[in-house]
Backbone:
């Protein structure tokens, strides 16, 4: 197993699921129901929380222990660095979340549609890192079928939650007057970053093997930042938070089952 190849395969799958979701713009034009949207946001949050624990933090500590090092340093240190990285990106990259009127990040002259795409692109960075690292880890343990199964479970879980995410980008762009074809392309493009960062982290691991535990926990910290900063608050908007709560619990359960059953 070549780490770069398998990282590209895994993160490429999650990108394709984003593209499949974005293709719904050719069949539907109406606005996504707010309750359904909160369920999807909560589901994504649940998947990412479970993946951060089972697929990233625990393997990070196991890798450190296998190398004869204290597992707490890379687990906690990488986690903090991941949070700081996303915090910095959140402050610097211009982006606009759905339903908001004021853009975040540095001032820019980008159009509203571009800012909407950048918001989802920002969130996809840690997802691509997580999937790429999982497959790179599986390649390093090629004699263990469980490692590849665990990576496949993570890619499947991320892909499932990327499907509605792609639609959540393309449909609002269509409502703002953009053609269906262009809305599809931009919605799909928001997932390209997963493929890019999935391959980049696999390259980093190949160059410096001891950084694997740090990168795994780094991806976990970055994903948890997205969950706490964006997904949970957005899933809880409105008079009733039950749809988002049930979505989060369902996502956590699905990802846990996938990881335990396949990993």
Residues:
């Amino acid at each position: 197993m070549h780490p770069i190849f398998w990282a590209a395969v895994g993160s490429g799958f999650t990108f394709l699921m984003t593209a499949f979701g974005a293709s719904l713009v050719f069949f539907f034009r109406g606005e996504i129901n707010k309750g359904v949207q909160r369920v999807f946001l909560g589901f994504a949050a649940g998947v990412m929380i479970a993946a951060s624990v089972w697929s990233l933090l625990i393997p990070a500590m196991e890798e450190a222990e296998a190398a004869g090092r204290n597992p707490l340093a890379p687990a906690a240190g990488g986690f903090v660095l991941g949070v700081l990285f996303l915090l910095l990106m959140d402050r610097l990259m211009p982006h606009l979340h759905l339903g908001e009127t004021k853009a975040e990040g540095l001032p820019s002259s980008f159009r509203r549609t571009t800012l909407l795409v950048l918001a989802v692109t920002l969130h996809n960075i840690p997802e691509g890192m997580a999937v790429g690292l999982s497959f790179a880890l599986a390649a390093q343990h090629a004699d263990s079928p469980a490692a590849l199964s665990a990576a496949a479970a993570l890619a499947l879980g991320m892909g499932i939650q990327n499907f509605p995410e792609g639609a959540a980008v393309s449909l609002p762009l269509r409502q703002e007057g953009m053609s269906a074809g262009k809305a599809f392309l931009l919605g799909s493009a928001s997932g390209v970053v997963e493929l890019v960062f999935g391959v980049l982290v696999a390259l980093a691991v190949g160059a410096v093997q001891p950084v694997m535990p740090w990168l795994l926990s780094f991806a976990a910290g970055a994903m948890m930042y997205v969950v706490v900063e964006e997904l949970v608050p957005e899933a809880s908007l409105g008079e009733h938070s039950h749809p988002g709560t049930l979505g989060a619990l369902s996502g956590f359960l699905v990802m846990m089952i996938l990881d335990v059953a396949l990993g």
